[in-house]
Specification:
This protein is of the alpha/beta class and 406 residues long. It has 2 domains: 175 residues, 3-Layer(aba) Sandwich (Rossmann fold), CATH 3.40.50.1950; 198 residues, Rossmann fold. It is 32% helix and 24% strand. The strands form 7 sheets. An 8-stranded mixed sheet has the order 14-13-10-15-18-19-21-22, with helices on both faces. A hairpin with a 2-residue loop joins strand 21 and strand 22. Helix 1 runs parallel beside helix 2 and helix 3 packs across helix 5. The radius of gyration is 24 Å and the shape is elongated. The mean pLDDT is 91. It binds cytidine-5'-monophosphate. Cytidine-5'-monophosphate binds next to helix 11 and strand 18.
Length: 406
């Protein structure tokens, strides 16, 4: 794919990897993009403004004001189709995560309306520092795209993680991004995530270990593909992307009520929540006192939200469920697909050590009426990105389960 007509703003910060920005700029221009460059003042120690302005065919901006005239950072962030900060130093990362605004690059970052991509570059110890992880995850949560770092020789002479992604790989990423980013524009996606807590009395409940991370990542991924996302989220302390509308619930019945209200207006429903199958029949209004006798809680069935959505769905709606199986995984997941009239079941098996509750990684298989696809282990964030893309492309595939559609 060419980048013809794309307007790309490149931000350069103070890192030895800034030498790679020269090739990145050249490759972007060669691919047909219109390129403008902003440098932090400190980046000028690492790469020449003359080289970058010549290659980009545009003046390089670095000061908020020059010769008494103000540089319009707002217009730069609006001009661009994407803003790529490459390399991203630890210092600029920390400023981005805290909202500091002491140079042109940061002012543009804070006012940009276009998608933002960062290519971190730093020494391994800095890469693994807890503040770096915290700052990067803050940016990611707020919809910024974080490019992977590579392992290899570092400016310090050490070998390890922290090398900036190679310019050729950044170009491929950008091409893929432009190819994909609009896949869910105009679509509404309803997602359930997290556990449910079923009260026993005012202080006790029956719950499970779901963290909600998988569903939260899928919400972020769908929103980054342009969807309008409503996330119905059970009790969790994990943060959610701020462009996702989140409705917090506690119990399965509350989650069901919200889904009943919103399902009709959505094109796609993705049910990742670990909904409690049963709830105590009666909830005590006061804390239950212990005594010497045994204690039994009578449980009643909760509504199956996925099965309800499957039974309700119109021909132009897609319903996706998750399954966690411990035996006969694929056969059970296929049966679930049918029973709940879902179009896709994402199966995670507890046999995989990298998969399941509370883990950052997952290993899933995709079960559709006509196909079983096994995906390799990956971070939940990457799986969410792949899944959002897969689901976005599903209506054009043939295996949509219309057998039970209304
Ligand atoms: O039947 P099982 O609980 O294994 O099915 C899991 C799938 O069904 C998940 O997608 C889960 O979100 C959904 N589910 C639901 N409501 C329930 C139980 C499960 O939506 N009460």
């Amino acid at each position: 794919m060419s980048l013809s007509g794309k307007k790309i703003l490149v931000g350069v910060t103070a890192s030895i990897a800034a030498y790679k920005t020269i090739l990145l700029t050249r490759l972007l221009v060669k691919a047909g993009a219109e390129v403008k460059i902003i440098m932090t003042p400190a980046a000028e120690n690492f790469v020449s403004r003359l080289v970058l302005s010549t290659l980009s065919k545009n003046p390089v901006v670095s000061a908020l004001a020059t010769d008494g005239s103000w540089s319009n950072h707002v217009m730069l962030g609006r001009w661009a189709d994407v803003f790529i900060v490459a390399p991203l130093s630890c210092n600029t990362l920390a400023k981005m995560a805290t909202g500091l605004c002491d140079n042109m690059l940061l002012a543009t970052y804070l006012s940009a309306t276009c998608p933002i991509v960062v290519a971190p570059a730093m020494d391994e110890d800095m890469w693994y520092h807890e503040t770096t992880s915290k700052n990067l995850s803050f940016l990611s949560r707020h919809g910024k795209h974080i490019l992977k770092v590579a392992s290899g020789e570092l400016a310090s002479g050490l070998n390890g993680m922290g090398r900036m992604m190679e310019p050729e790989d950044i170009i491929s990423w950008v091409e893929t991004f432009f190819g994909q980013q609009l896949l869910l524009v105009g679509k509404k996606v309803l997602i359930t995530a997290g556990p449910t807590y079923e009260p026993i009395d005012p202080v006790r409940f029956i719950g499970n270990h779901s963290s909600g991370l998988m569903g939260i990542e899928i919400a972020r991924a769908c929103s980054q593909l342009g969807a309008q996302v409503t996330l119905v989220l059970g009790p969790t302390s994990l943060p959610v992307s701020d462009n996702v509308v989140t409705i917090k619930v506690n119990t399965a019945e509350e989650m069901f009520a919200v889904c009943q209200q919103h399902f009709g207006a959505n094109d796609i429903a993705i049910m990742t929540a670990a909904v409690a199958d049963y709830r105590p029949e009666n909830v005590a209004s006061e804390k239950i006192k212990k005594d010497d006798s045994e204690f039994t809680i009578r449980m009643v069935r909760n509504p199956d939200i996925l099965a309800w959505a499957g039974a309700q769905k119109r021909a132009n709606q897609l319903v996706v469920g998750f399954a966690l199986e411990t035996e006969n995984e694929v056969a059970n997941a296929k049966a679930k697909l049918d029973k709940k009239s879902a179009d896709l079941i994402v199966l995670n098996s507890l046999r995989d050590v990298e998969a399941g509750f509370g883990k950052q990684t997952n290993k899933v298989s995709l079960i559709t009426p006509s196909n079983v696809v096994e995906w390799p282990t990956n971070s939940k964030a990457v799986i969410a990105d792949q899944l959002a893309k897969y689901i976005a492309e599903m209506p054009s595939k043939e295996h949509v389960n219309t057998a039970h559609s209304a």
